[in-house]
Amino acid sequence: MKKNPYVSLEQLQQRKEQLREIIALEDKEIHRLWTQLAGKDKNSSRGDQLAAYVSYGVMAYDTFMMLRKLKKGYGSILNIFRRRN
């Protein structure tokens, strides 16, 4: 059985506050990274945004066609990882 490292209620409350601060800092870091990854670039022009949308569409189409080709060749996507004798 684990021994409780906290002797008093004050120690427990201090640890609770420390954990809240750590969680808040990590939440801010996650938010910053997510915004950097998925956020829109405010300095891009309308043409740049349109080019990005077209690029995403081409990538989606290419992925769909690749999966279709693999399914046709192997019968199922899951059969790709099985050994053939």
Give your account of this protein's structure.
With 85 residues, the protein is mostly helical. 69% of the residues lie in helices and 0% in strands. The chain has helices at 9-38, 46-74. The longest helix is centred in the first third of the chain and has 30 residues, at 9-38. The relative contact order is 0.05.
Give a topology summary.
Elements: H1 9-38, H2 46-74
Features:
85 residues, 0% strand, single chain
Quick take:
This protein is an all-alpha fold and 85 residues long.
Taking the alpha carbons of the first and last residues, their distance comes to: 53 Å
What class do helices, strands and sheet pairing give?
Answer: mainly alpha
In terms of per-residue confidence, which ranges show pLDDT below 50 for 5 or more consecutive residues? none
Determine the mean pLDDT. 84
Q: Level of helix content? A: 55-70%
- Estimated radius of gyration: 25 Å
Number of strands: 0
Largest β sheet strand count, sense and barrel closure: none
| Run of helices and strands | HH
Please state the overall shape, judged from the principal axes of the Cα atoms.
flat
Provide the β-strand percentage band. Answer: under 5%
Number of helices: 2
